[in-house]
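Sample intake — CobQ/CobB/MinD/ParA nucleotide binding domain-containing protein
Collected from: SAR324 cluster bacterium
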Amino acid sequence: METLTKSEIHIRIAERFKKSVSTIRTIEQENPNKYSIMYDAVFDSVEEYDNTQRKTIIIALLTFKGGSGKSTLANLLASNLSNAVVLNLDISQTASECNAATTVDFSEFDSELNAKEVIEDLKQNYDYIIVDTPGEISGELLDLREHIDHFIIPFSPGKRARETTIETVEQYFGEGTNYFEGDYKLMFILNQYLDDVRLKDDAKKLIASLKEVNIDKKIKFQINMSALKQSRAIATMEDNQMDINSLDETNRVAYRVAKKRINSLCNTIKKNFILEEVE
């Protein structure tokens, strides 16, 4: 199968469009009534061609513990990716307004549609879908595994948070579930840590615990680790439901510090998941 870059696809679409427009003008001269029909047909054809070439990357943020910053991280990541959307699957709460990314609630779609069908619908228009999963396991959430390219599992410092993170991995990928036989790429993000000493300690303990997790051998993991330091600016953004860029108007210094940390984390995610070019 031929692989095209995005620019090559756009060139081919433009060439195809140019040729089609020339055909339309000829038909218009011969029979004006056929013009609008041909016009619609050409654009439908071009749109269909573009969609067949699109490879949408789907990233799910997963944790069964509240307060880990899952939704905030989903929104921040989507804001740092081009043509991205956040899909909020947690029907118990609406999507947060404190982000600059396009966000849609699963509950807004037809009640007869399942999550997989909604994702297929969104894939027609977006290059990245960031899935903000609910805080509990379900059959539908398990069925999504084969459609997810990458998983991000945020956790906060402390023993209990590490234990919950291990439980999340065991429940979602472990034995006793109808899992998909795949090669999963996981990134664990230690969120809201206070100092570098605690960061290294929590990361080492989590990695040691992961090695003891009883996971079926058919499932392969590529594990990456990253972190986002606790930020008063981000906390303010969450409390006031502010867009991250709005902080620049209220506290420019805090905004710059927070923005630098966020960009660094997002670049690490892009690098590990081989996404778009790192800034």
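Post-analysis note: The radius of gyration is 22 Å.
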